[in-house]
Every structure is written in C-alpha cells, then in structure tokens.
Amino acid sequence: MEPISHLLTLKDLTREQIIGLLDLAKKIKANPENYSTSLAGKSIVTLFEKPSLRTRVTFDIGVNRLGGHAVYLDQQNGAIGQRESIKDYAKNLSRWCDAIVARVFSHQTLQNFRQYATVPIINSLCDLYHPCQALADFQTIAEHYEDLGKVKLAYVGDGNNVTHSLMLGGAILGMEVAAICPMGSSPDAQVVLAANELAKVNGGKIVVSDSLDALDGYDVVYGDTWVSMGDETPLEQVKDRFSPYQINQQMLDRYGIGHVLHCQPAHRGLEITSQVMDGPQSIIFDQAENRMHAQNAVLLSLIQPEQGL
C-alpha cells in the first residue's frame, strides 16, 4: 500500500489506503494493548480554532493510549496566521512535534500548513471536509455490514463538510451515497462533481436530491445539525424548511432504514428525535467511540507506519 503523508481530504486517498486505515482501526479497537507504546516518545500538536468535545477528547486520549503526548493549542495564543505567519507557525512546530492535527475554519489554512510544515498534517475539521469523522463513520458501518461496497448510505439535512467527506469516501469505497437536502442547502457543486468522478472509477453512485422519497431502499441514514458551527444563521430562520427532514421513527419505518448515524452534537427534537437516537437502530455512540480508533489508525499510518502492521 502506498504510504500516506498527510490527511487533508479523503479524495487524496486510494481505496486501498482507506480500507487499510479501516482495517487498522478495527485492530486497534480489538487489541489496544498491542499499540500502547506505538507512539512512545512522539508528541502531537492539536490546534483548535473551533470548540470541540469529541474531536479534542478523542485525539487527546487516543494519543495517550498509543503512548504519545498531545499538546493542545487554542486561540488564546492568537488567531492562526495573525500573531505570526502560518509559514513561521508551521516551521516552528515542525521542529518540536511529530504531527499537527488542526481543526480550522478554512481549508486554505491546512493547505498552507502542508506547504510549510515538515511533519504530517491531519485535518480534524475545516469548512469543506471532515475526513476523520467519515473514517469513523465507515468503520462503524463496517461493524454491521460485511461489504461496504454494497451499502447504501443517505445523508439527510444541510449539505456540509461531513456530507462532502461521506460522498468522497463512499465514492472511493464503491458505495451508493445520497445527499438529501432542502433546496438551497445542497452540498458544494465541485465536491459533488469530484465524488461523481470517483464513483465512476470505483463502481459507486452519488445521488443528490431534495425529495425524501429518495431514501427508499437505503440501509443507513445520517443526520447532522441544521446550522453548522460558525454559521450565524438563526435556527428559527431554517427550522420550517428543515423540519420535514427530521430523522424520526416514522421515517425509518416508511423507508426501511436499518441503522442511524449522527456526528453530534445533536439537537434532540430538531434534526433527530430522542426516540431514534436512543433506539435500537442507532449506532451513534459506537460512531462517537470509533472517532478515537479511526484517528489512531491515521496517526500510526502517518507517524509510525511500521507499528500499524
């Protein structure tokens, strides 16, 4: 398998690389003791321009479980690129740490880091992509379906960075992925185009629709907040438009949905009901746990690839 140098977006990976990361995540989850010293002596900087629960905790504890040391930096040191240039920021950090994990507002920030850093860069969220989340999602789906290439996954709600990563990763894996969004909230057109091209090569299929009837026959439905982090749009302005897209038991029963995912934070009673979130078809908290295992697979593959064999 071709080695991975950075993880900014799943579209930069091959099917073999994604499958390799998922296989390694499965091994780490099953036998964590085998990897408890894999990052011994290694330090990982985690940069956060945005607040976080799952991303911060899973990276911090995950690095610790691999025997490494996580260093958390937030904006108390000044906005990235303002107090000092990203070039200098990246060059300095590269002298001290073994990888940089960054949760940022703009994908351009990550591209700048990749240009100037001499250590691996991991995108833990930006405006366009959320690759670590998607890897955890695919790992969770794979725990319930033997062949990912035969799974039909439908994202319902606002087309965003999570939608983009699911479409791109699913296309590479040969899955059928649908983005079912209200008019005016569809995923980025350029990302859809790229996902369609990847789907053609890998035997997948991409569907974009505003009709809930497109859900018919899908295995997994996926939800997210209706207003993404950093979007100042008042919820009341979009509530009426998004309410028909709420994931509830009636939707699951009508369309024969087997499992439910949500990347959280979830707004119970809005994009998803508590009945569904806490119900037997929900694999949402398995999905949250798998963030740590999938991210640890990424860290090992970038920093100590021989440890992940």
Automatic annotation (TrEMBL):
Keywords: Cytoplasm, Transferase. SUPFAM superfamilies: Aspartate/ornithine carbamoyltransferase. L-ornithine binds at N161, D224, S228, M229. Pfam families: OTCace, OTCace_N. Its EC number is 2.1.3.3. Residues 6-143 form the Aspartate/ornithine carbamoyltransferase carbamoyl-P binding domain. Coiled coil: none annotated. Its main location: cytoplasm. InterPro entries: Asp/Orn_carbamoyltranf_P-bd, Asp/Orn_carbamoylTrfase, Asp/Orn_carbamoylTrfase_sf, Asp_carbamoyltransf_Asp/Orn-bd, Orn/put_carbamltrans, OTCase_ArgI. It is found in: Cytoplasm. Residues 151-301 form the Aspartate/ornithine carbamoyltransferase Asp/Orn-binding domain. Pathway: Amino-acid biosynthesis; L-arginine biosynthesis; L-arginine from L-ornithine and carbamoyl phosphate: step 1/3. GO terms for biological process: citrulline biosynthetic process; L-arginine biosynthetic process via ornithine. It is an enzyme of class 2 (transferase). Transmembrane segments: none annotated. Carbamoyl phosphate binds at R103, H130, P131, C132, Q133, R291. It catalyses: carbamoyl phosphate + L-ornithine = L-citrulline + phosphate + H(+). GO terms for molecular function: amino acid binding; ornithine carbamoyltransferase activity. It comes from the Bacteria. Belongs to the aspartate/ornithine carbamoyltransferase superfamily. OTCase family. This is Ornithine carbamoyltransferase. The lineage of its organism: Bacteria, Pseudomonadati, Pseudomonadota, Gammaproteobacteria, Celerinatantimonadaceae.
